[in-house]
Design a protein that fits this description.
Layout: H1 2-17, H2 24-33, H3 40-46, H4 59-68, H5 76-94, E1 99-100, H6 101-112, H7 118-130, E2 134-137, E3 140-143, H8 144-161
Antiparallel strand pairs: 1-3, 2-3
Helix pairs in contact: 1-2, 5-6, 5-7
């Protein structure tokens, strides 16, 4: 019975995603990752960008599928997902834990093929800050995962600074 339910879920997911040029291998990957979700096809219909939470499916592929499903350029889920994707990518590329808002906005223009939508991006950033997914420091933005990592490092350093390590020698050879 369990096997039949899983097969039915994969079949329903396949019937839903096949018209959007999703390969059978990707359908199987999605079905495996969303096996605990009661109706994965319905969840993807509501927000196709949930696919970005599946290892092996990034923003660009999820965006292709979403566009084929009829998701609009200014869809809130699209803006949030693109912002999350780009801020992490930019931080990783630069080796930083935060980036400037203007850098993010310029890349959003390019990635989303939208131009001069800075007010819309600002609204998206404010929503993501409010939800705790981003942290803002003036004109700098940090994704939550990097913000909390930095907090842990700071906490560790403060803890170590309070410990007594004994005498510190100027000349280690003596």
């Amino acid at each position: 019975q369990k096997s039949w339910k899983q097969f039915r879920s994969i079949r329903e997911l396949g019937e839903f995603l096949a018209p959007f040029d999703v390969s059978s291998a990707m359908i199987h990957l999605i079905a495996t990752q969303l096996k605990e979700v009661p109706n994965p096809a319905e969840k993807i219909k509501k927000n196709p960008y949930v696919l970005t939470h599946i290892k092996g499916i990034g923003f660009k592929r999820a965006d292709e599928i979403a566009k084929k499903m009829g998701v609009g350029d200014l869809d809130e889920n699209r803006l949030h997902s693109a912002t999350n994707y780009l801020i992490r990518e930019l931080c990783d590329m630069q080796g930083n834990s935060c980036i400037s808002k203007m850098t993010l906005f310029e890349r959003l223009d390019e990635e989303l093929v939208l131009f001069n939508r800075h007010e819309l991006y600002e609204k998206t950033v404010l929503e993501m800050v409010h939800d705790g997914h981003l942290h803002q420091f003036g004109e700098l933005l940090a994704p939550d995962i990097y913000y909390y990592a930095e907090e842990q490092i700071l906490s560790f350093i403060k803890k170590k600074c309070k410990q007594d390590f004994g005498e510190i020698k100027k000349d280690l050879n003596t």
